[in-house]
Amino acid sequence: MIQFPFVKDLVLIGGGHTHALVLRSWGMDPLPGVRVTVIDPSARAAYSGMLPGFVAGHYERDELDIDLIKLSRFAKARVITGAVSAIDPVAKLITVPGRPPIAYDACAIDVGITSIMPTLPGFMDNAVPAKPLGPFASKWALFRETAMAPELAVIGGGVAGAELAMAMTHALRGDGHQPKVHLIDRSKVLTALGKKARSKMMDALESYNVTVLEDAPVAEIVADGVMLADGRHIPSQFTTGAAGAKPHDWHSDTGLTLHEGYFNVDANLQTSDPAIFAVGDCAHLSAAPRPKAGVYAVRQAPVLLDNLRAVLSGKALRPYVPQKDYLKLISLGAKSALAEKWGTVQSGALLWKWKDRIDRAFMDQFAELKMMSQPALPKDHASGLKEALGDKPMCGGCGAKVGPKALSDVLATLPVSTRNDVQQIAGDDAGLITLGGMKQVISTDHLRALVEDPVLMTRIAAVHALGDIWAMGAEPQAATVNLILPKMSDELQQRTLAEIMIVASDVLGEAGASIVGGHTSLGEELTIGFTITGLCHANPITRSGGKAGDQLILTKPIGSGIIMAAEMQGIANGGIVVEALKVMCQGQAEASRILSRAHAMTDVTGFGLAGHLNGLCESSGTGAKINLAAVPVLDLAEGLSANGVQSTLFAANKSAVAIEGATGPKAELLFDPQTAGGLLAAVAPEDAEQILADLLVAGYDAAIIGALTETAKIKLH
Ligand SMILES: Cc1cc2nc3c(=O)[nH]c(=O)nc-3n(C[C@H](O)[C@H](O)[C@H](O)COP(=O)(O)OP(=O)(O)OC[C@H]3O[C@@H](n4cnc5c(N)ncnc54)[C@H](O)[C@@H]3O)c2cc1C
Fold this sequence. Notes:
Elements: E1 8-13, H1 17-28, E2 34-40, E3 44-46, H2 51-56, H3 61-64, E4 65-67, H4 68-74, E5 78-81, E6 86-88, E7 93-95, E8 102-103, E9 106-109, H5 123-126, E10 127-129, H6 133-146, E11 151-155, H7 159-174, E12 180-184, H8 195-207, E13 211-213, E14 218-222, E15 225-228, E16 233-235, E17 238-241, E18 258-259, E19 262-265, E20 276-278, E21 283-285, H9 294-313, E22 328-331, E23 337-341, E24 344-348, H10 349-367, H11 385-389, H12 404-411, E25 422-423, E26 431-435, E27 438-448, H13 454-471, E28 475-486, H14 490-511, E29 514-523, E30 527-536, E31 551-554, H15 560-568, H16 574-585, H17 589-594, E32 600-603, H18 608-620, E33 623-626, H19 637-642, H20 650-656, E34 659-661, H21 665-668, E35 679-683, H22 685-697, E36 703-709, E37 714-716
Parallel strand pairs: 1-2, 1-9, 2-5, 9-20, 10-17, 11-12, 11-17, 12-13, 19-21, 28-29, 33-37, 34-37
Antiparallel strand pairs: 3-4, 6-7, 7-8, 14-15, 15-16, 18-19, 22-23, 23-24, 25-26, 26-27, 27-30, 28-30, 31-35, 31-36, 32-35, 33-36
The chain binds flavin-adenine dinucleotide.
Flavin-adenine dinucleotide binds next to helix 1, strand 2, helix 2, helix 7 and helix 9.
């Protein structure tokens, strides 16, 4: 497919129900020329329809969540994991703390509501708001694991509060407890339902022994319960707030017209600024006000999609006409549900099955995304093309590196430098330049983007490039930036460059280096690289100083290559991907300082732990024994390895190094290419424990993974 230049930025704020559906449709039929960005604090957006079922124990956590990372990969959107705190409609900039502002041409807001009650004393410390749904679900799962003689309180006697009260009771009974659950409301409960439905719900609450406290305003939430205004103390170890909708506070910092704190939107879902749309619970439909319910958020999706495409391509918009009423399907703790529409009420197990089918069908839309596949080969093609293309998309980051053998074969044919002020230390991380009495190291690195977000990619590429300098025990000094941006308009080039340069100077500045120049060009895909010099105040730490008996310390878990390969194929859990990216972003300046007494050091990157260990052993004239159990790995990496997932460079890495001993999925991870991986250091045995302790205190997930040996072999046990 032709990659059209980007000329407009569309930013979707929040991964709520409407945006999830918009992204799915966008992935199937994108508007050429538009770069899409999604911003959400979480990698997973919980689906409200299944939340009570999850609380009751009918669904697993994964079944409840829309994986925003997978969905964004499908839609070729960049994901920003963060919470928007402000929008400037004049400058057309969105603020997410901790990163440069994000520019937009069109933007939509779908951030839902919150059940946080900051003005209720004790709420922030002692209660769990029902919304946002994701954090609520996580805290509930934790409570279930540790609950003993549980007593609970739900503040807010709306439909959601009543559903939660019954679901909690059902789950805890299933866990062998006799819970006491209190449903508390400042006035009457379940007022949004008709008389018949309310009466059935009250019966259902009674059958679960839920204590309903009406006309009972809450004065304070305390550590062991709820204090009512009339002085009663309601014991509770898990107090949740489901008392209606509250808009997020930051809405008022946007300058947009609000209605009771919600974004006021017209029939086209446009706010007071025509470039900004708002949907779902966070919007007030001024033309036809409706209650806050997921069903409206879902139905707004096709209209929002059409209208976003329309504003980005200069076409006419169309109105959203909300339905007058909607079918309420309310779960009743066990696998039973109550249905109400137009005053008709039914309940029972069959309705649960129906609700379950509807909810699963909704979620299946996100589970069955057809991910990027290799282009079909033309009928006539050169022999060898199929093998070179492979059967999976090419990895980004270090997974896209040229294999170790191809590289070393070519480098071996090059003439050795005859300059006596420049030293190429065979296979080492950086070259050494001697200037007067001063020793300077120099290294270059660039990465094919493994995520669409230039800011995150810059951070990873900078940490990755600095790794060579840190591995030599040097102090980063100066850097040049080498960029290839995907084809885009002048304006988008400027936006993207600004984002990249702000982050590059942040990361390099923090490491002590100044940016002194660079080179940019346009090309097929985002590639970010740095050439960095470092100053050595002592002799550089090379790979050749290791001695038999030295302990081997690794400062980061391995597995980033396989996780990102799985992410590209749409089979990685988004939460795990975000964690892996965080590990890649972790700088190694402090680790390098702590390891300054290392005999030999290298950074673990494209050739995997095995390849870089092999390099260290060859240069040091040793072998190594590795305790496989001690090697830290990222969550789920081993499972992916067991399922046969591999990064593009895996096979070349594996064929380049012979390892004896243990085999299996974890052992295979030693060949997994790492992007911005950890430092691997050989340290004196008497120093090892203290160094490890210092690394752990400094926040590194480090481990002693083995030792160097006399015999020139690498053995795994
Ligand atoms: C227990 C419970 C059960 C419910 N059951 C039903 C039901 O069965 N049927 C029904 O129709 N409705 C139900 N609702 C209501 C339903 O949850 C909402 O109407 C629905 O989720 C609204 O969807 P949304 O798209 O507006 O936002 P949400 O689904 O709430 O999504 C908002 C997203 O925005 C993100 N976000 C928040 N702040 C920011 C920020 N600052 N920057 C970026 N992103 C941000 C969040 O992480 C989240 O992913 C229920 C509610 C509760 C509490």
